[in-house]
UniProtKB/TrEMBL annotation:
Superkingdom of origin organism: Bacteria
Protein name (database record): Type VII secretion system (Wss) protein ESAT-6
Compositional bias segments (type: Basic and acidic residues): 95-106
Stretch list, region Disordered: 34-106
Length: 106
């Protein structure tokens, strides 16, 4: 026997708003972090030690790690926003289906 599934479009819309809020907060945090780090320039200097810190062996220095973090965090914000949009569309589809079904009983 199949379990009953109940969908509440209003709750889906609220969940979508929360997911969008997550996306917005991540984007804000990333923008704030980028501004803060960009404003400091290269405080590690340009000597051998500073270059070693910034570049590492080419793929594992601070600059590469910073770019990876920005890319991953940006993707996380994008995915949260996409999830929110999907929830909003789904809520609309469910509401339309519910109204269409209810109209058949009138």
């Amino acid at each position: 026997m199949t379990e009953r599934v109940e969908v509440t479009p209003d709750l889906q819309r609220r969940a979508a708003a929360k997911a969008q809020g997550v996306s917005d907060r991540i984007t804000h945090a990333l923008t704030t972090l980028k501004s803060a780090t960009d404003s400091r320039g290269t405080p590690w200097g340009n000597d051998e030690y500073g270059e070693g810190f910034a570049k590492g062996d080419g793929t594992n220095g601070y600059e590469a790690a910073r770019e990876n973090l920005k890319e991953l965090t940006g993707s996380l914000a994008d995915h949260s926003g996409d999830h929110s949009e999907g929830q909003q569309r789904s809520a609309g589809f469910h509401a339309d289906t519910e109204h269409g079904s209810a109209d058949q009983f009138r």
